């Protein structure tokens, strides 16, 4: 059992796979466990979960620096990105980072039949390449290697060129302080650094960008009053970003409410400092330069990869390299375990 930032986590030394699956604190585990028990004994009614959806939405809004009325709740990052991709005009010119996570790039590429053109450039070249494009879509922290986009340069370039901006913060929210009301759309899946069960995601929508989106998955839960939107026409969707909601995955929202409400009270500057210090400490121990990210990507031999696994290190293989992530529940013991396994 570990303690971090006022919470406890039932995770041992060597868990460095938060970029794949984040570990909930024990309060979130209890909340989901209790919800499963209530389900098992038939103690729930559907409307009881609305409070969890609201709590999670409010907390996510706080974490990215927007008003909760401007947040839509979905189930996955690609589903929410897909709303934007399917709504852009025919012939839209989209700029993305080379080797971007495909849940961000594929929804736009799938619109090629409408003349939507997607161009890839290096991450550092995004701001200088925005002229001549209508929209830039980028992960704030890259999934493959943890590279961090220059948000201020991106913001300035967008203001200069008029390009719309879609940010995916799936690998950033939860360890990086974020204040993103300037972006047109901000998407995040919850089950990584936000420490939620899989099946919850959100999209913050700048108010002047909301009417550009077609609610392709319009459903009863997106109604102005969901419980009065179950049967029959006319269409009566919410005036706010809730018009893009999907009917929630109940147990995921229970866990999300518990995890995000706690995270929204944590000092994210302190979390970033903690996580980046550990990651850079590992890089320093390996004779590699600091990168200022919570994610480390290493080119390891097969022998070294086996040594890591044998030592009990949980990691992931991405883009032909070993990916390690340091979150708020990690400690110097995790760094030392990796260095010992790699004999440094």
Which tags fit this structure?
Aspartate Aminotransferase, domain 2, 3-stranded antiparallel β-sheet, alpha/beta, globular, 10 helices, about 350 residues, about 15% strand, 7-stranded mixed β-sheet, Aspartate Aminotransferase, domain 1, 2 domains
Which strand order spans the largest sheet, edge to edge or round the barrel?
3-9-8-7-6-4-5
Sheet with the most strands, sense and barrel status: 7 strands, mixed
Give me the number of helical elements: 10
Shape: globular
The number of distinct structural domains comes to 2
How far the N terminus sits from the C terminus, by CA atoms, comes to: 27 Å
N-to-C series of helices and strands: EEHHEHEHEEHEEEHHHEHEEH
What does the radius of gyration come to? 21 Å
Keywords: Aminotransferase, Transferase
Protein name: Aminotransferase class V-fold PLP-dependent enzyme
GO molecular function: transaminase activity
Pfam family, one: Aminotran_5
What's a concise summary of this model?
Pfam families: Aminotran_5. Helices cover 33% and strands 15% of the residues.
What does this structure look like?
This protein has 344 residues and is of the alpha/beta class. It folds into 2 domains: 2-25 and 267-341, Aspartate Aminotransferase, domain 1 (Alpha-Beta Complex); 46-263, 3-Layer(aba) Sandwich (Aspartate Aminotransferase, domain 2), CATH 3.40.640. 33% of the residues lie in helices and 15% in strands. It is built from 10 helices and 12 strands. It has helices at residues 26-40, 50-64, 77-87, 102-109, 151-161, 207-210, 250-263, 268-285, 302-310, 332-341, and strands spanning 2-4, 7-9, 71-74, 93-97, 117-121, 135-139, 164-168, 185-189, 201-205, 295-298, 316-318, 321-325. The radius of gyration is 21 Å and the shape is globular. It starts with a strand and ends with a helix. Residues 47-286 form the Aminotransferase class V domain. Pfam families: Aminotran_5. Keywords: Aminotransferase, Transferase.
């Amino acid at each position: 059992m570990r303690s971090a930032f006022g919470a406890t986590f039932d995770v041992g030394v060597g868990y460095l796979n938060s970029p794949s699956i984040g570990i909930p604190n024990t309060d979130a585990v209890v909340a989901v466990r209790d919800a499963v028990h209530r389900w098992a004994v038939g103690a729930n009614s559907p409307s009881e979960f609305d409070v969890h959806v609201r709590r999670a939405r409010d907390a996510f809004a706080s974490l990215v620096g927007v008003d909760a009325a401007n947040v839509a709740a979905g189930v996955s990052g690609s589903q929410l990105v897909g709303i934007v991709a399917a709504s852009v005009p025919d012939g839209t010119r989209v700029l993305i980072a080379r080797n971007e996570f495909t849940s961000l790039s594929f929804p736009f590429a799938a619109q090629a039949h409408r003349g939507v053109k997607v161009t890839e450039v290096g991450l550092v070249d995004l701001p200088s390449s925005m002229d001549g494009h209508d929209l830039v879509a980028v992960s704030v922290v890259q999934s493959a290697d943890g590279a961090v986009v220059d948000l201020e340069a991106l913001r300035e370039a967008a203001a200069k060129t008029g390009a719309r901006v879609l940010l995916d913060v799936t690998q950033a929210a939860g360890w990086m302080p974020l204040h993103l009301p300037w972006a047109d759309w901000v998407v995040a899946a919850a089950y990584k650094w936000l420490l939620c069960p899989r099946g919850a995601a959100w999209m913050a929508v700048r108010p002047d960008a909301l009417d550009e989106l077609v609610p392709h998955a319009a459903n009863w839960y997106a109604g102005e009053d969901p419980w009065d939107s179950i049967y029959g026409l006319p269409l009566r969707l919410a005036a706010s970003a809730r018009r893009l909601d999907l009917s929630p995955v109940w147990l995921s929202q229970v866990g999300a409410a518990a995890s995000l409400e706690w995270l929204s009270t944590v000092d994210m500057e302190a979390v970033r400092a903690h996580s980046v210090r550990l990651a850079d400490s590992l890089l320093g121990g390996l004779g590699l330069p600091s990168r200022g990210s919570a994610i480390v990507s290493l080119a390891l031999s097969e022998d070294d990869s086996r040594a890591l696994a044998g030592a009990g290190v949980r990691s992931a293989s991405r883009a032909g390299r070993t990916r390690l992530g340091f979150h708020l529940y990690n400690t110097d013991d995790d760094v030392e375990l990796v260095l010992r396994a790699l004999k440094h």
